[in-house]
Amino acid sequence: MPKETYIPCLLRLFRQYGYDGATLAKISEATGLGKASLYHHFPGGKDEMVEAVLNFLESWLDQNILQPLGKTGDAYTRLQQMCDRLNEFYEGGEQPCLFAVLLLGSARDVFHAKVKTLFQTWINAIAQVLIETGMQPELAHQRGEDAAIAVQGALILAQGLDHPAPFRRVIQQLPAQLCQAEMSDNTPRTTL
Amino acid sequence: MPKETYIPCLLRLFRQYGYDGATLAKISEATGLGKASLYHHFPGGKDEMVEAVLNFLESWLDQNILQPLGKTGDAYTRLQQMCDRLNEFYEGGEQPCLFAVLLLGSARDVFHAKVKTLFQTWINAIAQVLIETGMQPELAHQRGEDAAIAVQGALILAQGLDHPAPFRRVIQQLPAQLCQAEMSDNTPRTTL
DNA sequence: GACATTATACCAAACGATCGGTACAGTAAA
DNA sequence: TTTACTGTACCGATCGTTTGGTATAATGTC
């Protein structure tokens, strides 16, 4: 079997257990491959496995996020499509984000560069959509960051509260919040 | 020396390296205590060390967040005080959140219950402040979640982008966003 | 005060288990 | 016969943990 076959399984393991927690014993059991076979497909060991998963996620990002966002048409609808795909990918908030897992694990330095560019790519793509609607580039970029923040934060909270509701709500509200016009005054609030 | 002396050091280590990455060797070196001495203070081993850190964070939360939020006075100002303390604690976005680290590490199950109640306590305290301003309880609770989401997401992004700017911006904008009145119509946006 | 006892704080060394990784013989397919 | 792949057995290193013990200071006893 080609090594690409095992990428989804590896993704699942690293998301679930983290870099350290996903031991070769677990990987061997989950893939049904002996250690020797794993090292045949991934001579670089665990690091190469994670790298392969990150490459897979890069192409996933391109196909499921960047390309839909790059199409012509309604900005709101395009962002909604992105949210649909994110909802799928994170299984409605039940699965954590591998990026966050890697960033907060002990091997953060090894994969930091790759994760950084993936984040930047995603944020820039969102910003570009908003710029096309006439939004100022600076604000659009902020909104792109806000989207990433909302998704990542919601995933953390969903894990922490052991309930996916916050993530689902964020995903549902996100397109409207991103397209929303800026507040006219600085601090409009209900009451003091 | 009493074991409380070593809590800040342990907090730093677990934040920086994660549960798995903070090995006893590193802990021994950082604290200046031999492994056996660590087991004198924390007979339960690493788990008890983390537990002690979480207990410390629980009292930190009470003193620096819950009590200021519980005072009388301007809601906006109280939330701003909370943000100041958070900014301190996370060192302007340069330090990750131990809760997230634990939730995404391999030992998530062990500390999940404790982290969950701490999250809930924090969110409820924010919601209570907003309810006092006349906000509907349901919306107030959503805003409490939004605050946690924004902080956690911003910390992840700050780690991922290797730049604390997103966190600082979120912290600065947070009080206004929480107090902000609900949108009149559902999806007001600039352009299609 | 002098002495025995106990509690606290600490450490060097070693424990078994598991880690990621490798060597190599063997099998299956071309 | 070559190439691709896999199972077994094994490696050194490091993991968290435990053992056995030593100082030091406090506490009780006479």
What's the short story on this structure?
The structure is a homodimer of 192-residue chains. By secondary structure, chain A is mainly alpha-helical. Chain A contains nine helices and no strands.
Report on the structure:
Two copies of one chain form a homodimer. Chain A has a domain at 55-179: Orthogonal Bundle (Tetracycline Repressor, domain 2), CATH 1.10.357. Helices cover 74% and strands 0% of the residues of chain A. The first copy, chain A, is built from nine helices and no strands. The first copy, chain A, has helices at 7-21, 24-31, 35-41, 46-70, 75-89, 98-104, 108-132, 137-161, 165-179. The longest helix of chain A is centred in the first third of the chain and has 25 residues, at 46-70. Chain A is elongated. The termini of chain A are far apart. At the A-B interface, α1, α6, α7, α8 and α9 of A face α1, α6, α7, α8 and α9 of B. The structure holds a DNA duplex (30 and 30 nucleotides).
What is the tally of beta strands of chain A? 0
Mean pLDDT of chain A, as a whole number? 93
Round the Cα radius of gyration of chain A to an integer and report it.
Answer: 19 Å
Structural class of chain A: mainly alpha
Main β-sheet of chain A, in a few words?
Answer: none
Order of helices and strands of chain A: HHHHHHHHH
Helix content of chain A: over 70%
Looking at CATH, the homologous superfamily of the domain at 55-179 in chain A is Tetracycline Repressor, domain 2
* CATH architecture type of the domain at 55-179 in chain A: Orthogonal Bundle
Low-confidence stretches of chain A: 184-192
